[in-house]
Amino acid sequence: MRYARVDTQSDPHSETSPTTEKQKNLSNMLAEELQAIGVTDAHANEFGYVYATISSNTNKNVPVICFCSHVDTAPDCSGTHVKPILHKNYNGEDIVLPDDTAQVISVKDYPYLKEHIGHDIITASGLTLLGADDKAGVAIIMDLANYIITHPEVKHGTIKILFTPDEEVGKGTAKVDLKKLAADYAYTLDGGEMGTYEDETFSADGATITINGVSAHPGYAKDKMVNAIKIAGEILAALPKNEFSPETTSRREGYVHPVNISGIAEKATIEFIVRDFETQNLTKHEARLISVAENVMKNYPKATMQFEVHEQYRNMKEVLDKNRHVIDNLIEAYKRGSLEPRNEPIRGGTDGSRLSFMGLPCPNVFTGMHAIHSKHEWVGVRDMEKAVEALVNLVQVWEEKS
Ligand SMILES: [Zn+2]
């Protein structure tokens, strides 16, 4: 709850690293707290990354394992003046948030709440997100560090801790120094329900359509002006209504999604994100988007269109399938904590997808966070505790199997 109170919202329009200076407030706090519990090399750097090492306490040669989470919160919802509320011994009723009583976290919308009856949950107060994404992950890793240091009977190899800024704006690994980190494998703590783990993410591209119209003085524009803004509107209206979009797809289906539109009569730009679990399907979706746009452009021979694609991230399963023991050890750790391992593909990306392709295979572990990026965001304390326990088991599984 202390971490959630720190405003760490990242900014997709910023060119600096980190994208917002305020993220460092939490990074510095975490480095200091790690120092205070005896993780002596813990430090936050100029880009807002925190690196720390817990030394091995075994004679065995154990691979170096890193635990990673992000300090920033999503730009989609305010993260200023977050007031976390601890609901002790949750009674199973809908939760009305006090600072805006129109904000109700209902059991109907979030049936997973029922599994928390009798346990503690944490929500925001109605005006902001909570930031459990990913401060739940941060808290779990901090608690793990504290537990391991105060329980020398837990045998483990070298453990690395990495906190990153800017995950929510796709730049979480932009300035990460993997040489310095020197880990063999990693786990992000950025998942949802207790017992879930994720070894598969979307593959992702960004696509931009630029429309060049013809400008003229509006008073004398008859038969001359071709308004690029109106063409952009027509292209958006021509997109399929019942498929191909985030609002109409689930599970393993991909989509194309307009995320930004800007322009004047002379020139308009539409930015899209393109997503699918099969990397080769991205090209198919992009071809379909081009054909929708070209069909509209046919009606405007004086206007022109450009289409650009850039790669964002790739499905980490391609890497993890070659490193199955990273998953096998995690499953073993879950089972020791009487958790039922459940694998769910992430309809999004994590730092883990990028890290995996940078050479650090990195599946994702549950934290208990729910309704993320919204005022309804909540997290179950029991889930966070079970995640810490799973990590304590996990470092021991790695030690035993080495
Ligand atoms: Zn996250």
Please give a structural write-up.
With 402 residues, the chain is an alpha+beta fold. 28% of the residues lie in helices and 22% in strands. It contains ten helices and 18 strands. It has helices spanning 2-5, 23-36, 132-150, 178-181, 228-237, 279-297, 317-320, 324-336, 351-357, 381-400; strands at 43-44, 50-54, 65-70, 85-87, 95-96, 104-105, 121-123, 159-164, 185-191, 196-198, 203-212, 255-263, 267-276, 304-313, 342-343, 364-366, 369-370, 378-380. Zinc ion is lined by residues 70, 133-134, 167, 190. Residues 70, 133-134, 167, 190 line the site of zinc ion.
Distance between the termini: 37 Å
Strand content: 15-25%
Return the string of H and E elements: HHEEEEEEEHEHEEEHEEHEHHEHEEEH
Number of helices: 10
**Largest sheet: spatial strand order:** 1-2-8-3-9-16-10-15
Helix content: 25-40%
Mean pLDDT: 97
Over all CA atoms, what is the radius of gyration? 23 Å
- Assign the structural class, choosing from mainly alpha, mainly beta, alpha/beta, alpha+beta, or little secondary structure: alpha+beta
Biggest sheet: strands, sense, closure?
A: 8 strands, mixed
Q: List cofactors, ions and other ligands.
A: zinc ion
Which short descriptors sum up this protein?
10 helices; 4-stranded antiparallel beta sheet; binds zinc ion; 402 residues; alpha+beta
Helices and strands in order:
Layout lengths: L1 H4 L17 H14 L6 E2 L5 E5 L10 E6 L14 E3 L7 E2 L7 E2 L15 E3 L8 H19 L8 E6 L13 H4 L3 E7 L4 E3 L4 E10 L15 H10 L17 E9 L3 E10 L2 H19 L6 E10 L3 H4 L3 H13 L5 E2 L7 H7 L6 E3 L2 E2 L7 E3 H20 L2
Zinc ion binds next to helix 3.
